[in-house]
């Protein structure tokens, strides 16, 4: 068992504003896959800023039922003077329990003994049990005698005659979940209130946070449980209405159109942030929300390619471009991963086939050759599902890959492979390989895989990453000799061809201006049978065998391979690709390519698999055409009418909704104002760097000499344009900062400690007493 595990995992989660503690629990899993708790780290909400974005070691705390509390309780306390029949003055406490998230309340009243932290209890009273609710309303009143006259003769734990002794007393409220089990009731939390604050005012009504029980038991020392290193980044945003963000949002969304792009607001954010990932997350979400992600990434990618000197290092660094593309793939490609990898990943996790190929790590009874064969089958299956998944790749990813391919091909015209490696460096190295390696981080599995499965996935990921890299010296990519030996299974041209065909497909459906690249990309070709389209007024509409060819420019057919095309259909003229019902021509495996003016090309594939492949790939390359149809005729127009709906006019609109093929857009739940608020927070945090960048612009504009060292970290291609953008950013951030300051002032004025929204806790109790004292003094 590893007693010093390193996790290295990132988790992003939304948490409610009303939380009190952020807790991390450590478990130990035994050989029977049962989890037993070791300890926890609990950070109070108000302490999170102290540890924000800092690596910190936290001592593990012991976990017990008495410390696991949450929720709040609503109480009203009133201390009254009562005159007895004999004329003696004594004090009584009235306690009213209004509501809470729990089931039963037990109240005790007394004086704490300083020596042992025990309680000398005067009286204990219980509310009625409220069943089947987590938010019970009690509305019960209990009375306690606080001071008694000296003539009182009933024996109790204590007698108090001096009114000043009230200051030493407390009231304790315990909350329990009533249980019918033999183990008894479940403790849910307690509340201890000193009565001295009632001396300020005789009546208080407030909400209180429940606290852990201080029962005097000595738990394990923190050192006995170990410690946990965490880096916690906590951000709390207050989002205004959309119009507040217009100035800053507008300058951000124009980033793709700024020349040079290094002078844009989005690029400047990447320059000033300590980590590129900080900037990439809100930028990508903002641009995705407003449909500007492709032009933005195209602009910054093109600028990065121009600065790259060696094609072998293209997109290899942790630049803003790389981080933005990574984040886009995580958001837009999550469903793509689910449909592509999840079935086989689930099988690997459940079956537990031995796949260890390192002779040193083989377990007793394992056979090296059997393990290699198990691993080879897994790699082959995953490689096949990936390279056959091109038609499912989200459009936004394809558009980005098209831009990367085009920029790389123009920059390094002598390197024919760079158009592939520019794309594979993302889709294989930064998307599929990490998802295979850590499926839990990509929502492919609910938990981190066990050690054996994790090792299998590591070996698969390494092999898939190398297959996708298309490097010329594959064996040299492995430091381990056993991996180089295993890779010999895949040293065949068919694997490289499959990768290139896959990369061609996913990088071919980008912008509609396809002919901006030098050569069309061949996506699919082969013999099929077509019916004459009726381009001539007279003549038989018979069926003929033709060689079909699809590129990202056009769909053509000719008599034989290599002949001059007899017909060419531009991709932008494909309005729909749908199956054709067999009754039309009494022929199976037929589909139709619908063009403008209701012209239809009817085609018969060799088999049902080929028909589906052609329909999928034709739909893929044409799915973003602006004039795509929403309805079509599933049967042919013969003998003066449509066979499906019997309509007689050949230009009658379709009678059946189009299948739609693949989703053209990814629908994401993104709040554009919230992302703009986060970007504002980053600009505000790094304001000193923005001001330093302004100085750098001025220095470069005035002094055209060697760059000063303190300014060398910034990319400034055009000082004047960059300065103008910086001025707009600083102005927009300043205006928002003023709005936030005003909001905080207004909120502080309206904040009332003890309300349901701001319950009283350990640290706020003294604030509450002070606030109430000021109110009382003001009333006097």
Automatic annotation (TrEMBL):
A Pfam family hit: RasGAP
PROSITE patterns with a match to the protein in the record: C2, PH_DOMAIN, RAS_GTPASE_ACTIV_1, RAS_GTPASE_ACTIV_2, ZF_BTK
Any one GO BP annotation for this protein: intracellular signal transduction
Ranges where the Ras-GAP domain occurs: 275-469
Keywords, in A-Z order: GTPase activation, Metal-binding, Repeat, Zinc, Zinc-finger
GO MF, one annotated term: zinc ion binding
Record-linked Gene3D superfamilies: C2 domain, GTPase Activation - p120gap, domain 1, Pleckstrin-homology domain (PH domain)/Phosphotyrosine-binding domain (PTB)
Boundaries of every PH domain copy: 521-623
Alphabetical list of SUPFAM superfamilies matching this protein: C2 domain (Calcium/lipid-binding domain, CaLB), GTPase activation domain, GAP, PH domain-like
Domain C2: 1-58, 69-208
Classification via PANTHER family: RAS GTPASE-ACTIVATING PROTEIN 3, RAS GTPASE-ACTIVATING PROTEINS
Name assigned to this protein: Ras GTPase-activating protein 3
